[in-house]
Structure formats: C-alpha cells, structure tokens
TrEMBL record:
Region (Disordered) location: 1-22
Molecular function via GO: ATP binding; ATP hydrolysis activity
Name of the molecule in the record: ChlI component of cobalt chelatase involved in B12 biosynthesis
SMART domains membership: AAA (SM00382)
Domain AAA+ ATPase, residue spans: 50-164
Tree of life domain: Bacteria
Amino acid sequence: MTPPRPQSNQKREGKAASLVPPPSSLMPYSAIVGQAQVRLALELCFVEPSIGGVLLSGERGTGKTTTVRAFARMALERPLVNLPINATEDRVVGGWSIQSLFEDNQPRHQPGLLEDADKGLLYVDEVNLLDDHIVNIILDVTSTGFLAVQREGLDRKVDLRFVLVGTMNPEEGMLRPQLLDRFGLMVTVRAESEVASRVKILEQVLGMEDPHRRAARELEDEAKRKQLHAARAALPKVRLSSERMRECVNVARALQVEGHRGDLVMALAARALAAIEGREVVEVKDVQRVAPLALAHRRKPGAQREAAPWGEVDESLVAKALALVRPAE
C-alpha cells in the first residue's frame, strides 16, 4: 500500500459528509416498512462480519440510506461513518499530523475513516463511482480484519472490525466483476409498488412525530438489538454439518458460480441466520434463504446475467440443488 502523506489538523476532507441528523430525527429501525432482504443482509453482516459486507443496488429514493442509518443506530447505538466518493487514500487509511511534526518533530498518526468506523458501520454511498484502488483497500480490511500502513521503515498494523455497506445506482455504472465478487452479499432494492405499502410508509414516517408511537418503536429496536448481540455471542456454537456444506457447494454449482467465495459466504450467512433465530444447528432452510443474497451477483455471465434480478428460475435451481423438489420425469 502506498504510504499516506501527512494530513493537516484542519477540517478533514469530507468531514461534513460524515455528519448525520440527531437521533430524534432518524427513523427507528422497527418502523421501516418492507425492505426485508436489506434488513436481513444487514443483520447477517452484523452477526458475522467475516461475510464481507453488503452491497445495495437500486435507484435513488428507494430507502437505502434511511434503512442503513436506522440499522446503525439500532444495532450499534452510534452514527455510521460515511465515506465520500472523493475521499483520498490518506483520508481513508490515515496519515501523519503536520502539526505534531512542526511542534515536536515527532510523527503522530492521525486516524482515517477506516479507524473511525472500527466496531461500527462504514457506509460508502455510490461505491461504483469510487476509485477502484480505494475500494480494494476497504474490501481488504473488511476481509482480513486489519489495516496495514507501511512507510520509511515504520510499520503500523491496526485490528479493525466494522460492518461495510456500499450502495450504487446501476444506471450510473456497475462495479467491475472482480470488486463486485468481493462484496459478501448483494441486494437489489426496489421502491414499494403496492398502494397499501406506500401508504403504510407515509403513516410510519408521519407517525414518528408522535412521541408515544416513537417510544414504542424504540422499545422494539432495543429488543432487536439484544437479539442481534446475543446471536453474535452465540455464533461460535452454531454447527454447520458436512451435509449443509455440500448443499452450499451444490447450490453454487447449480447457478454456475465461479470460484469458492460464493460457497463460503453462503455458509457464513447460513450460520449467522441460525444464530439470529436462536438455533445451534444450521438447517437446509437457512441455506435456501441466504442463497439469493450470496449468489445473485456471482452468477456466471451467459448462464445468468449479472444484473438480472433474482427470479423463479433461480429459486427453482436452488430448490433442486437442495433436493427440495423432485426432478420432472
């Protein structure tokens, strides 16, 4: 990695983009309408950070940012860290404080956004517009759990663990396949089309002006937070049998997924789902439920278009691979 240049102690680039509204103006997580797959993906990545983050793909105005901010406040009880698309490598990994060099001629490390996000949530909006090199750095830290910065004989390594969430609008361009594959899970986010659902969204948003209704939702958020933290603590006890492992491989092969990352992510996500539901053994239904999140963006071009939505054909292939249906005679 290229050594970061010194940074000044003035307001750091993109700082304003990291600010979020005060908690009282944020939607409670339990008040979010729909977005079931988005919420599931976020919860799985919280329980098992080794999954490698989640990519949310969808047009503007589909509630991606609202859902992520609500999740960060619920699960982590702290604001998310927002990484702007114009962030430099120094801003991301950190640099040396110029003021300390002038004052006592001693290099002093100034943390970057990755360290700011430790034990929290790193949010990268429009990640498809971010420089590929920066995306690689972020994904490396997410997968390895540590940040390494090297310069002039100095070697700094920091253990980091955070939930990575990236968003993109496919109309503005896709990520390169190599980077797309490195995101653990992916969800295609769509606006609610049913009139009843859209009305319910309005009711929930306007209803949060009522302090009593908001307080009730905050209590639901507290219960969900306890559930997720308990699931994270119980995760090491969750057993994935060799049969479930074989099923993960079979599903990936049925969808013509190249490489092994899809198998691994599906297994990790299935374990996390079992932990969330309070079970110590992964069941076939867990594999089936997480398959779209882990494999939709890894389907082989030609067999399945990468950008094509997950549909009935995919569900049928998964069911057959899991021997949940009998093949047609």
